[in-house]
């Protein structure tokens, strides 16, 4: 009997369907004046979407890794503080956190700065000096850091303890063990969920439109409200997001396959 093929070996018919549909939509966009006008406007928001996603995700990775290490610390205070932060952030909807950071936390930070540093000779900061774009970035970073912390924690705990003990016996200190033994192995294990969260952040970056940040979604709302061509405008917006998310997903799968192949070739 011929064994059933593995699911990963199935021909990606879904990708063929998506590619054909995408090519047809791009043809419609280029051939139709309304679609072309919508694309010309919405394309201006691509860079904002990319900047928000990259900066917020990079910051979330750094903060999430720090939280994961704090959660695995031998000091109970650090463990409890990390757990408190993670549970609170995971329990708040991202859109609520965006509004809270933009209209509560940011003004509080401005007030605290003026109270602490203006008497020392620093220039006074006004609320409008804190752009809504960076308020949105901070909110996304805080929200995603809690989810990434759990991913990093699981990866760090999955590293074989025997290898850590062997590194200790060789005289490696804590930083050297983390840098050369623990983190490289943990990173390879957590790469798939990290990639999934990166793609998810591309989509969640659309939430910054509630603050008026001129990303793809905000420009689509403004454009559709002005020309009343909601069907065409939101089709273009959906096409732009699909192009970015599916493209990223394929690149991440390729990267994962290369890493698996590299590990398989190692003796």
Describe it.
This protein starts with 12 loop residues before the first helix and ends with a helix. The mean pLDDT is 87. The protein is mainly alpha-helical. The protein is built from ten helices and no strands.
Short synopsis of the structure:
The chain is mainly α.
Q: What is the number of helical segments per DSSP (H or I, 4+ residues)? A: 10
Helix content range = over 70%
Low-confidence stretches: none
Beginning-to-end CA distance, first to last residue:
33 Å
Shape: flat
Q: Would you list the SSEs in sequence order as H and E?
A: HHHHHHHHHH
How confident overall, as mean pLDDT?
87
Give me the count of strands: 0
Radius of gyration: 23 Å
Quote the beta fraction.
under 5%
Structural class: mainly alpha
Query: What can be said about the biggest beta sheet?
Result: none
Keywords:
267 residues, 10 helices
Produce the secondary structure layout.
Layout: H1 13-31, H2 33-42, H3 46-71, H4 76-91, H5 94-117, H6 132-158, H7 161-169, H8 174-204, H9 216-227, H10 230-265
């Amino acid at each position: 009997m011929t064994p059933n093929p593995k699911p990963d070996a199935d021909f990606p018919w879904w990708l063929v369907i998506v590619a054909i549909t995408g090519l047809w939509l791009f043809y419609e966009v280029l051939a139709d004046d309304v679609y072309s006008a919508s694309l010309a406007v919405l394309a201006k928001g691509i860079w904002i979407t990319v900047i928000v996603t990259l900066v917020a995700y990079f910051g979330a990775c750094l903060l999430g890794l720090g939280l994961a290490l704090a959660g695995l610390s031998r000091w109970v205070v650090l463990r409890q503080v990390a757990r408190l932060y993670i549970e609170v952030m995971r329990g708040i909807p991202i859109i609520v956190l965006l509004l809270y950071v933009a209209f509560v936390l940011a003004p509080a930070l401005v007030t605290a700065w003026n109270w602490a540093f203006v008497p020392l000779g620093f220039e006074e900061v006004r609320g409008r000096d804190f752009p809504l774009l960076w308020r949105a970035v901070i909110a996304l970073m805080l929200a995603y850091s809690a989810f990434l912390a759990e991913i990093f924690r699981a990866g760090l705990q999955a590293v074989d303890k025997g290898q850590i003990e062997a590194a200790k016996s060789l005289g490696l200190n804590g930083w050297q063990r983390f840098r050369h033994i623990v983190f490289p192995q943990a990173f390879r294990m957590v790469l798939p969920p990290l990639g999934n969260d990166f793609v998810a952040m591309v989509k969640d970056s659309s939430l910054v439109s509630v603050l008026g940040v001129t990303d793809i979604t905000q420009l689509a709302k403004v454009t559709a409200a002005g020309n009343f061509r909601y069907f065409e405008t939101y089709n273009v917006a959906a096409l732009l997001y699909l192009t970015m998310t599916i493209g990223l997903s394929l690149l991440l799968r390729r990267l994962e396959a290369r890493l698996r192949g590299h590990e398989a070739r190692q003796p």
